[in-house]
Amino acid sequence: MTESTNPQTLVLHAGYRKDDTTNAVAVPIYQTTSYQFDSTDHAAKLFGLEEMGNIYSRIMNPTCGVLEDRITALDGGAASLAVASGQAASALAIQNLASAGDNIVSSTDLYGGTWNLFANTLKAMGIETRFVDPTDPEAFRAATDDRTRAYYAETLPNPKLQVFPIKEVADIGREFGIPLIMDNTAAPILCRPFDHGAAIIVYSLTKYIGGHGTSIGGMIVDGGNFDWEAHAERQPNLNTPDPSYHGAVWVDAVRPMGPIAYIMRARTVMLRDLGAPLAPMNAFLIIQGLETLPLRMREHCVNADAVAAWLGNQPKVTMVIHPSTQNGEARRRADAYMPGGNGGLVGFELEGGADAGKAFIDNLEMLYHVANIGDARSLAIHPASTTHSQLSAEEQKATGVTDGYVRLSIGIEHIDDIIADLDQALSKA
Ligand code: PLP
Asked: How far is it, in rounded angstroms, from Cα 329 to Cα 147?
């Protein structure tokens, strides 16, 4: 088949043509823990990284492998690693580079769960997060020191829905030998972070990529575009002998396989030891979603643009938060980094504050009230009392959550039905 770079084709064809034994066209579910070695020599070669092949499903599985290859192709990366959840992807992506005593610099505009991971759990493990305001890319430089191992941000963070300055921060990081890790969960297809200098992408597959609210999953994608070796002091995990892998220096050990030292270490050390693999059944379900992702993203964007415009005309709505309503630098970033569309998330504030926000949610009939985004169905939530409730008032403010804020994840139902439900719920708020 001729090589395609079109997402519509890649999601259906990259990484898999047919099953070699049965000729099955759908990706099979390889529900197996282990794989028979051809001989003791073969087994030794696999363990010694002299040959690539299946060993044990905690660290690799063929169904997960197809999903990995398709997302790698979609983002123009070098290789990927499927994991059990988006949270596992974020945690492992950082732990692969940073150890106790190190730090990362992260945007303040984060999913609440990621904020908690950084502010509390990684902190307890000795990895400090320095949170900075992403409206000023130079804040990343100012927070950097000799022990900074990574920069971290979300492409389209909610609730603020202001697109992150990917190139500006990636360029600063590259001066220091610091990779930018982008959480692209809210903007797959719409944004390709590697095109703008990001080195690593993480996804919660649970959202748009799976798309049907059936399976939790995560992915780490290695852009293969970062020179780890040129920054040996900055990146010791990839450049010094690894006692957990008979002294392998990852940039050397992996050289014959291509620029994939980062993701190979994530797989063979982090996933081996911390053990959060994606289940093959979930990989299969997420592949079904991935195959229609380009179509769905287009519909999510068209519907969300229409909802944002409609909300702008409602007297009870004091503010609409959506890239289509932004001007100036925020608009420029949206145009530069999300050329594929404004995304499916829409925020708004109600003049009645928290009581109105809760009443609106309680009166929805078609939209689901759930702690999720990126489902084919339209969803709504009141972040202050749910997703962001474990944050302090100050932290909520820093991430952009106010009392009257309502977050919508606009689905692919008919736009008339979405607006009819919003209209009747708003009339009771
Ligand atoms: N990143 C973002 C932007 C998210 O919205 C979420 C979940 O809501 C996650 C990461 C975590 O993903 P998961 O729920 O798959 O662990």
From this structure: 31
Q: Ligand 1: distance of its center to the CA of 72 in Å?
A: 19
CA of 373 relative to ligand 1 center, distance in Å: 9
Block residue for tokens 């044990």: 56
What's 294-428's CATH class? alpha beta
For residue 252, give the amino acid letter: D
Q: Residue 119 has what DSSP assignment?
A: I
Protein fold of 7-287 = Aspartate Aminotransferase; domain 2 (3.40.640)
Q: Which of 333, 73, 369 is nearest to 201 (CA)?
A: 73
Among protein residues, the one with the nearest Cα to ligand 1's atom 15 is 86
With CA atoms as reference, report the closest residue to 251 among 230, 222, 221.
230
Predicted confidence (pLDDT) per residue in 248-305, tens digit = 999 999 999 999 999 999 999 999 999 999 999 999 999 999 999 999 999 999 999 9
Q: Which tokens in the block code for residue 158? A: 């909610």
Rounded CA-CA distance 183/213 in Å is: 19
Mean pLDDT throughout 369-395? 88
CB of 86 shorter than 6 A to ligand 1:
yes
Best residue among 160, 162, 183, 207 to mutate for probing ligand 1, ranked by most atoms within 8 Å of CB: 207
Please give the single-letter amino acid code of residue 81: L
Give the residue extent of every domain in the chain. 7-287, 294-428
Question: Ligand 1 pocket check: which of 85, 87, 182, 282 to mutate, most ligand atoms within 8 Å of Cβ?
Answer: 87
